[in-house]
Amino acid sequence: MLIVIAGAGNVGRAIARDLIKNGHNVTVIDDDPAAIASAKKSGAETVFGDACEPDVLDEANLSKAQIVVAATGDDKVNLVVSLLAKTEYGVPRIVGRVNHPKNEWLFGEAWGVDFAVSTPQMMTALVEEAVTVGELVRLFSLRQSGSDLLEVTLPSDSPVVGKRVGDVEWPIDTALVAILRDRKVITPHPDDPLEAGDELLVVATTAQQPILRDLLCK
Length: 218
Description:
alpha/beta, single chain, Rossmann fold, Alpha-Beta Plaits
């Protein structure tokens, strides 16, 4: 699976490093030679040029990309890249970086953006969630409590599929926060059934995460 990142600055490189570490194929685009050189050191494929130019996007094989991350420091560039990726190349998922809060309203379906975020950790997590079913994805850490907010998409063979929330033996120090289903956010109730394809948001301590993974994904 190909993931293309527009922008080889600190944010783009951080995302590329995390994704490569997790075994993904990553191509980074930038028009700054120094930034491209740094991106190469992380093991990413690189394309030198303006990410708003179709020839550059062609060179990056955007038509074969499953995910595009618009991660430059310029919101205008991120919007143009997102729109081109979605409308001209049919990329299934676009993650857009919002640099200035006043521009957040622009980062939506009209500009081809599926998810608009502002931190590299969250951007990486959203990319991982797109390619990973049946695995825990850490969205961010709650440092003071030693816990993480996790996302997992239940595979069809998950042991909990078909069970009610209240019938699941959740590990200690674990809390099911929300169920995302059919573009709806469901506040968990003991009688709610769990279905294949449900996205669960869970808060859990680091120590309990292997147990939680076995419970939900084994």
